[in-house]
Recover the amino acids of this structure.
């Protein structure tokens, strides 16, 4: 890929997988182990300071399952890596034939709740692991982070501005998507605007101001081009002088029948500067001119600014949100929860390891609401249990075919905002939030007790 | 992009830009500001604990400059966003015509050193900013992090294992590339193997072991498929019992004329477990069986393990390296350093702001070595200065055409390893490393003094 952008097209994404998925599958195939099994994709624990997770990324997982294929180029490469002909023939015709249940994107979820549950011949279930983890990790990490930033902004619009420091091209797109789902009002990413319909926003850089002889000249030039939607960056030299120049231009615009949209602060003490600039604007009869702030912002900083009374109308949030800088991943895993025994019967299984235990069997998550519709608690139960609550997992793939009516991005966003509005304030605090109750159903607990006993017995035997 | 993987192809990457690049350019165009200017891409400061940066990502920037175009779909979308016809006509025919100088990938660099220097009509220079920052940020962040992990491993191979939690598809590829440049021995990412020729590695997951009736059965099945290259994951139930089972399989392989390649530890106290397992293997005449370790590793943890005498032969390092988890970005920026004055003459310019000052003019970085070839110090100078050192920036684009003879990935990796070997130990310590000396040349210092005086005078006037 020398002298190329090295971008991955859909035709190659099937190979974006850890090699061990393929070596395991080759061995399953070699040992005629083709029976079905069930896997859960879930998040083991909450990242620091997070008290919930906002699930995103499902759409791309389902497309990966249904649409991607191995090509002859892939087969040739795998052959060069020592894979055998019969397995390669199998891959040539590879197609997912199983069932998938999943939580809709934009749903608030919690650790240990299955988010995607796959029941399929074990090779098929295995070959979707890496991609599913990759895209759900990114989008859920960012949606969760962005929802906190939006919460901290108390209804003032937040624009996602992080493209330049997000991790590559795909992240640039998926971060814009996930942030929008989480309630951001838009993005700076033009391609995300074109492809996803997310509103795009942009102002100007310091270089624009510096490239003219004076700041005033730069502001006039910009206002000439965008008389009805200019936001002027006023901190290149001195924010107060910048505000004075912006006021001059705003008045000139008024004479022509236009209104300056806003001024942008990008450095310095945003609390005192925003107050001063607000007063200057108001004193000049420009109370309609908005103050937009940016510069190293995240949920903690925005919360602090607003607590201190900063006069800011909207925020541009970049790197720290776009990389989820304080924790750039979630502890996401994909674990076997059920396999077929010698008699061809599905048997729930689990890992016992301390801190790495998994929940056995095919499960469903039930969400209980109070009379007002607010979330009260979740119960993780076995699939066939009758629990008086809303089941979160829905069937999305049946016998390899997607049976899910994909929501639009706007619908996903609405679900997210509804979910966030139904989560009590105490669970949304930026630090030291209360722990939302997630329980295991009686039947699931009983199953775990039984399996523990059985596994201990087997372990005892193994030690003989 | 509903029901799609939402991957960005080369045909659309031109639009992967912050909107403000386009609004600024529209205004430059509108104001007939088409003269050239120079920009520096550089990193303002070192991330915590880092004492150098390993530069990567240039290849993709150059391809972006030379090859990407605006399409009619892009123009149509921009029109819907309010851009004017004459500017859209300009974009239709947009082509970069300027010059670019850059540091080769795999070079060790330091804060404030220009890494990419662009001299072009200001619109052209502006329209590459977002993509250049995006890919250099990702690849340099990861190459730097990975070089630290490789350093901590003291010559023992490090395999990049992070695909499942890297930020999307493009990051999955670019992280594999950057880690390999930094000295990793390979990756788990099969597509990176196919596209970049990076060696791919893989073992098995816990689910593989759990899907069989017993661990021994799972090991035998895997060894049957890969008799000459099996690494068995031995911690699914109990690492010591797992080692016993691996020894059984190793002996069975020996009878068939094969050798077990290794065992993998993925949890628990890796120091004591690796010592015990090493002794068990050695006592069974299996000193050739390697111990591979993984599980939440990074440079700090590997250093600690090896200091405590862990018997580990190679490492699989995932999430923390693949996201550079302790600091998932570098403070990378792209700043105007030179513009054309009213008389058509290039004039160096700079920003004075505290902590955000920039260096004026077209610059070159000179690296001084001692008699043994080790790095002594760097001098940032004006382009035309004669300094007795190796100039780091080379011409890579001339009048819009790439004139750079792209090195292969192996050559980039060799440069990185040579560079790292030439950097004194004291500059490579994982924490509290010495500060490598980077000086400004006398001429550059003099220019800065002059510009400061001039800017203060202008500011003084502005305040009148």
């Amino acid at each position: 890929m020398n002298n190329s952008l090295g971008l991955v097209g859909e035709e190659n994404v099937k190979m974006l997988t850890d090699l061990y998925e393929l070596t395991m599958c080759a061995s399953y195939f070699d040992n005629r182990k083709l029976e079905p099994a069930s896997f859960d994709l879930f998040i083991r624990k909450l990242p620091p300071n997070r008290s919930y997770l906002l699930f995103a990324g499902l759409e791309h997982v389902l497309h990966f399952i249904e649409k991607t294929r191995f090509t002859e180029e892939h087969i040739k490469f795998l052959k060069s890596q020592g894979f055998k002909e019969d397995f390669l023939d199998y891959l040539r015709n590879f197609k997912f034939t199983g069932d998938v249940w999943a939580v809709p994107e934009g749903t608030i979820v919690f650790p240990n709740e299955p988010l995607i549950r796959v029941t399929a011949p074990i090779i098929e279930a295995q070959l979707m692991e890496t991609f599913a983890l990759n895209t759900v990790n990114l989008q859920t990490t960012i949606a969760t982070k962005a929802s906190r930033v939006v919460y901290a902004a108390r209804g003032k619009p937040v624009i996602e501005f992080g493209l330049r420091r997000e991790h590559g091209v795909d992240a640039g797109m998926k971060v814009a998507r996930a942030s929008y789902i989480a309630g951001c009002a838009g993005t700076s990413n033009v391609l995300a605007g074109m492809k996803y319909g997310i509103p795009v926003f942009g102002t100007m850089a310091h270089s624009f101001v510096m490239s003219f002889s004076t700041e005033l000249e730069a502001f006039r030039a910009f206002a000439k081009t965008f008389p009805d939607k200019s936001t002027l960056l006023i901190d290149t030299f001195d924010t107060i002088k910048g505000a004075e120049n912006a006021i001059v231009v705003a008045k000139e615009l008024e004479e022509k029948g236009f209104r300056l949209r806003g001024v942008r602060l990008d450095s310095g003490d945003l609390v005192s500067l925003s107050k001063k600039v607000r007063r200057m604007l108001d004193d000049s009869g420009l109370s309609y001119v908005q103050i937009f702030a940016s510069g190293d912002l995240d949920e903690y900083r925005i919360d602090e600014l607003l607590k201190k009374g900063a006069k800011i109308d909207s925020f541009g949030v970049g790197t720290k949100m776009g990389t989820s800088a304080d924790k750039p991943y979630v502890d996401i895993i994909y674990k076997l929860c059920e396999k077929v025994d010698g008699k061809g019967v599905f048997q729930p299984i689990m890992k016992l390891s301390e801190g790495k235990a998994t929940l056995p069997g095919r499960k469903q998550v039930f969400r209980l609401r109070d009379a007002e519709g607010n979330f009260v608690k979740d119960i993780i139960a076995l699939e066939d249990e009758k629990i008086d609550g809303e089941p979160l997992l829905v069937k999305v793939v049946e016998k390899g075919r997607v049976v899910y009516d994909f929501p639009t991005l706007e619908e996903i966003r609405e679900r997210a905002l509804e979910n966030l509005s139904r989560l009590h304030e105490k669970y949304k605090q930026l630090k030291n939030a209360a722990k939302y109750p997630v329980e295991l159903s009686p039947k699931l607990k009983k199953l775990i007790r039984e399996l523990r006993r059985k596994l201990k017995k087997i372990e005892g035997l193994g030690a003989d």
